[in-house]
Amino acid sequence: MRPYIALCFLISPLLCAQDSRELINEGVAAFRSANYQKALELFQRAVGHDPGSVNAHLYLGTTYMSLWVPGARTPENEEQARLAESEFKRVLEMDAINKTAIASLASLAYNSKNFDEAIEWNKRMLTVDPANKEAYYSLGVIAWGKWYGPYIGARAEVLMKPEDPGPLPDPQRAALKHQYAGMIEDGIANLNHALMVDPHYDDAMAYINLLIRERADLADSKQQWAAEVAIADDWVQKALAEKKLKASSAQGYASLPPPPPPAPSGGGGGGSRTPERIRVSGNVQAANLVTKADAVYPPLAAQARIAGIVRFTVFLNRDGTVQNLQLISGHPLLVAAARDAVSKYVYRVTLLNGEPVEVITSVDVTFP
Fold first, then answer.
1. Which of 25, 95, 122, 123 satisfies CB 3.0 to 4.6 Å to 135 for a cystine?
2. pTM score, whole prediction
3. Helix or strand run (H / E) with residue 303
């Protein structure tokens, strides 16, 4: 701790805490504007002013995590993950049941492919919050992630195409069943727990379908395999119904017109004024895209062989970040993945008369 900060705590701890809160507020504003480096500096200063502030450490960890790119194997990137983990663990030293810190550590572990560690963090979440549907869902997804590679490898080994009916022949079937049958059952059980908390949790339905459909390849007979596939198909229909319902609701909301631009300030005068927002065609604005997040092809859509284009009207802030999305068209199974990707897009700042302006444009996301 720097000397002046230590002196601050000796003289007026309340003043230090007040300074920390002000820095946190400034940091939150910078973070919401996607100015992560400025947010990082402000949260670091907040921690320096008040090392005992749970919120300061939590926001600092969240900012490190936002700067981290999963899968990028550079020393700088791995250091961001390490620093984020350190801050979240510091939060848990002060507040052992902080759900945000636990969920963040679970996410860090999962996205680093540390599945066993992610399992432990999600189980810890359930001791704190037994009705946490995301923790149950994550445990189900992790079970699928650990099993899927060996499963696909076994099918490839016996030259079975994805569309070929099962079950697998022995000895591959017997070996997989011995090692993974319990894991698959645990995964399905956890996904069912998620559905007990939220009966409309369509993503949980999608993964139950996948686990049951793949479990069919471990069946003892063709008849058992067909029965398992029929159960999986039923889950597909349930998930589709939920996704269509949600997409329909989102479409109704998205059809509302955007708010009008702010009225010009000040009195009369005949001079021209730079507009607050302009419309730019999607093809033109695409050339200004500097950060593009790839859309993840949803497993259920892949299973159902659904492809197509999802189209949005996109509203950009003056700094080029996405402010809002309005769905124009797209298959319900593809909309959420497309929305998640486009919301992370960043464009070059658009200038008009030398001033940054908001932009309305369109974006198409193609699957697969």
1. 122
2. 0.69
3. helix 299-303
Residue linked to tokens 């810890």? 124
CA angle, 267 as apex, 261 and 270 as ends, to 5°? 85
Q: How far apart are CA 250 and CA 247, in angstroms?
A: 5
* Overall size of the chain counted in residues: 368
Residue 216: is it exposed, middle or buried by C-beta count within 10 angstroms (0-12/13-18/19+)? buried
Contact between residue 206 and residue 183 where contact means Cβ atoms under 8 Å apart: no
Q: 169: cis peptide before it, omega within 30°? A: no
Distance between CA atoms of residues 52 and 283, nearest Å: 50
**Helix pair 202-215, 222-254: axis angle to 10 deg:** 160
pLDDT tens digits, 62-83: 999 888 877 777 888 899 999 9
Q: Which residue is associated with the tokens 């229909």? A: 237
pLDDT: which is higher, 259 or 293: 293
Inter-residue contact 190 to 143 (CB < 8 Å): yes
Q: Any bridge partners for residue 327, and if so which?
A: 312
> H/E element holding 238?
helix 222-254
Provide the mean pLDDT of the chain: 84
Rounded Cα gap, residues 217 and 204, in angstroms? 21
Per-residue pLDDT at 57: 94
Helix (H) or strand (E) holding 189: helix 172-197
Q: Give the SS3 label for residue 119.
A: helix
Instruction: Give the pLDDT score at 188.
Output: 97
**Per-residue confidence at 264, pLDDT binned at 50, 70, 90?**
very low
CA–CA distances in Å: residue 191 to residues 180, 197, 283? 17, 10, 41
DSSP state of 321: B
3-class DSSP state for residue 324? strand
**Run of H or E including 351:** strand 351-352
Measured CA to CA, the distance from residue 66 to residue 334 in angstroms comes to 25
Q: Give ∠ CA 282-288-291 in degrees, rounded to 5.
A: 105
CA distance 91 to 19: 19
| Tokens, residue 206 | 């999608």
Distance CA(330)–CA(334), nearest Å, equals 7
- Pair 305, 17: CB distance under 8 Å: no
